[in-house]
């Protein structure tokens, strides 16, 4: 009898232990975490041509727009290539037009039986070769112009400029060496926070651990409460075995530049009275 009672008690304790480990989301449950902000976009500006860095146009730390000029590489060697390509194009165009004229003349002579068919075919072949050379010259000019345009380094995104890694006068190498500067996107920024396995399981069992289903409230170190409302947009599909946590991500609109990449944030997710998490609000 005692043995039976002991087995029953042990079973009940095990049952309650398992239930406590993964307790479902209850009314007014509050989940709080800490995290960090990261840039939603970060671009390293690297040279696409080899040459001397002649001018740093933008100021370090300044706000820049997409297309703003940041720095310049000496364009003179590349301008020479463009000029040479234009001259070759003009030459090949003149030669092509001449061969077309000659080919037309020979065709008329052939029609009047003044020349043999072999002569007409030879002139037609010359015109074909001249046309190919003309087309190639156009491609070479386009390539030279594209290379010249690469001497002007512009920002590919809106953001804020980092620190220049090189000063004027340095030789930069295409597709090699350090980046010249980094442009950091500041609006929006990402907010990352890590959720422990137990909380993740509770949210999953409630059907809430999905992108778009959770409202995320965020507060900064000097703020009371969690005044910034956003929504969960990404959950890493893997658990970090070193920390037994899963990384969540949200996007924070940042038109005033209040959030800075790398900044500490406080995060809160609140369950509604009906036991479901607060629905995601549209930004």
TrEMBL record:
Cite a single GO BP annotation. response to antibiotic
Molecular function GO labels: transmembrane transporter activity
The Multidrug resistance protein MdtA-like barrel-sandwich hybrid domain covers 43-183
Taken from the UniProt entry, a GO cellular component term is: cell envelope
Multidrug resistance protein MdtA-like beta-barrel domain: which residues? 195-270
> InterPro entries in the record, alphabetically?
MdtA-like_b-barrel (IPR058626), MdtA-like_BSH (IPR058625), RND_pump_MFP (IPR006143)
Q: Which residues constitute the signal peptide according to the record?
A: 1-19
Alphabetized Pfam families for the sequence:
Beta-barrel_RND (PF25944), BSH_RND (PF25917)
| Keyword list, A-Z | Signal
**Entry's SUPFAM superfamilies?**
HlyD-like secretion proteins (SSF111369)
Q: What PANTHER family does its record include? A: ACRA/E-RELATED COMPONENT OF DRUG EFFLUX TRANSPORTER (PTHR30158), CATION EFFLUX PUMP (PTHR30158:SF10)
Name the family the entry cites: Belongs to the membrane fusion protein (MFP) (TC 8.A.1) family.
- The protein, known as: RND efflux system, membrane fusion protein CmeA
């Amino acid at each position: 009898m005692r043995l039976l009672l002991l087995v029953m008690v042990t079973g009940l304790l095990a049952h309650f232990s398992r239930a406590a480990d993964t307790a479902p989301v209850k009314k007014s449950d509050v989940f709080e975490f800490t995290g960090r902000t990261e840039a939603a976009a970060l671009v390293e500006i690297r040279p696409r041509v080899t040459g001397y860095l002649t001018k740093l146009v933008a100021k370090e730390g300044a706000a820049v727009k997409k297309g703003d000029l940041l720095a310049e590489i000496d364009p003179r060697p590349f301008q020479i290539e463009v000029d040479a390509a234009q001259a070759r194009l003009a030459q090949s165009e003149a030669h092509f037009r001449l061969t077309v004229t000659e080919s037309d003349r020979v065709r008329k002579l052939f029609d009047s039986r003044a020349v043999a068919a072999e002569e007409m075919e030879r002139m037609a072949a010359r015109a074909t070769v001249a046309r190919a050379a003309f087309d190639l010259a156009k491609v070479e000019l386009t390539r030279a112009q594209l290379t010249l345009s690469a001497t002007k380094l512009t920002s590919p995104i809106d953001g804020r400029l980092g620190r220049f890694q090189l000063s004027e006068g340095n030789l930069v190498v295409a597709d090699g060496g350090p980046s010249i500067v980094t442009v950091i996107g500041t609006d929006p920024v990402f907010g990352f926070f890590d959720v422990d396995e137990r909380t993740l399981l509770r949210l999953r069992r409630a059907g809430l651990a999905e992108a778009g289903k959770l409202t995320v409230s965020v507060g900064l170190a000097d703020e009371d409460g969690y005044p910034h409302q956003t929504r969960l947009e990404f959950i890493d599909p893997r658990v970090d075995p070193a920390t037994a946590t899963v990384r969540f991500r949200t996007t924070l609109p940042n038109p005033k530049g209040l959030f800075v990449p790398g900044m500490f944030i406080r995060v809160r997710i609140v369950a509604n009275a009906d036991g479901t998490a607060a629905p995601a609000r549209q930004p």
